Amino acid sequence: MRAGLLCVLLYLLSSSHACPKECSCNTNTKVVDCRGRGLYDIPRRLHPDTQELYLQDNRIRGLGSMAFREIPLVRILDLSNNSITSVSPTALLGLRTLQRLSLAFNSLRELDKRLFGPIHSLSHLDLSHNSLWGLPGVIGDSLRNLSHLGLAHNKLTRLDRSLLEALGRLDSLTLRGNPWRCDCQLIGLKLWLETYLFKGGVVDDVLCSQPEEMRDRDLQKVPYQLFHACMSTSYHYLFANIHHLESERLLRGHIHGNHAHPSSHALHVPMGMGEGFGGGGGGGGGSVPECEPKQRQRPVNLRHAIATVIITGVVCGIVCLMMLAAAVYGCAYAAIMAKYQRELKKNEELAAAHRADHATADEKEPLENAIA
After folding, report:
1. E-strand spans in the chain?
2. Is 208 helix (H, G, I), strand (E, B) or coil?
3. Of 197, 192, 193, 191, the residue nearest 227 (C-alpha)
4. Dihedral over Cα of 79, 80, 81, 86: its sign
5. Do residues 55 and 103 touch, judged by C-beta distance below 8 A?
6. Mind listing the pLDDT tens digit of every residue in the chain (372 residues)?
7. Global pTM value
C-alpha cells in the first residue's frame, strides 16, 4: 500500500512540471517552443528551469499579474505577433534574469511605469508595431543595461528626453514609422540624436508627419533655423540644454530628497524646449502650446557661480598689474628723459661758455701784436 502511494506521489511530482501538451520542449537546451499553437493564455506547468520561451504567432490577449512565476530563470521571452492589448504592472515580476523581451506586433497602447521595475538585466526590448502613443520617462531607470530598443511603427509623436538619457548603454534604436510632430517640443529629441550619433549609436529615420510643411522631412536634417521661434522665445533654455547633465543631476537630487512622485523624473530643466511633456513623450501631463515653453525655476549652480567670481577676480587682477606696470614704466621713462634734458642743457651751457672764452682770446691776440 505504501509502495503504491509512493509511486503515485512520484508520478504526480514528475508530471507537475512536464512539458505542456501544446508545446515542444528540449530538456537539454531548456527551450520551450509554443509558436503558432492558437493559444489564448500562457501555458501552465512549465518547467522552472526553462530559459527560453517562444509564444509568438498565437492569440494571447493579455498578461496578468506574475504571468511567468513558474519560470523565474527565463532569459528569452518572445510574445510577438499576438493580440495583446493589456499588460499588468506586475506581469514580469520575478523575472530577474530576463535579457530579451519581444512584444512586437501586438495592440499595446500604453505601458505602466512599474512594468520593468524589477528587471535590471534586460538588454533587448522590442515594442515595435504596436499602438503606443507614449512611454513613461521613469521606465528608463529600470532599463539602464538596455542595448537595443525597438519603437518603430507605433503612434509616437514625441519622446521624453529623460527616458533616452537614462539609457546610457543603448547601441541601437528604431524610431521609424511614427507620426512625429516636429515642433518646439521635439527639439530635445533632435539634440539628443545628434549627441547619440556622435557617440557611435545607430538609429533609423525620424520622419516628420506634422506640421504639413515639414511632412516626410528627416528630423536629423531639419536645420535649426526652423526652430528659431522656439529659441527666441526661450533662449536661456537652449543654454540650459548645453549643461543639461549637471542641471538634471541637481534637480533629481532635489526631487528624491522630497520624496516626489516617480513621474517627476521627466521634469528637468531643458523641458522648456519641449522634451518632457505629454502627448507621445512623457506618458501623461498636460498639453502645452507649440512654441510657448513652460517657464520653470532653474536650480542654483553654486560651483558655476564661484567659478565665475574667481575668473572675474583673476582677470581684474591681471588688468590691474598691467596698469601698474604701465604706470611704473611711464614714471621711469619720464625720469630718464628729464635727467637727459638736464644734462643736455648743462652741456650746451658749457659749450657756449667755452666758445665765448675762445672768442675773447682771439680778439686780444691782434691787439697785443699791434702794441708790440
Report:
1. 24-26, 31-33, 52-54, 62-63, 76-78, 86-87, 100-102, 124-126, 148-150, 172-174, 180-181, 202-203, 208-210
2. strand
3. 191
4. positive
5. no
6. 444 444 434 444 444 457 899 899 998 999 999 999 999 999 988 999 999 999 999 999 999 999 999 999 999 999 999 999 999 999 999 999 999 999 999 999 999 989 998 788 999 999 999 999 988 877 888 888 999 999 999 999 998 888 898 898 999 999 999 999 988 888 888 889 989 999 999 999 899 998 888 888 888 888 776 666 665 544 445 454 555 555 555 655 655 554 444 433 333 333 333 333 333 343 434 344 444 444 444 454 667 778 888 999 899 999 999 999 999 999 999 989 888 888 888 888 888 888 877 776 666 666 566 665
7. 0.60
Q: Residue 207 has what DSSP assignment?
A: B
How do 86-87 and 124-126 pair as beta strands?
unpaired
The x, y and z cell numbers of residue 165, run together, are: 538619457
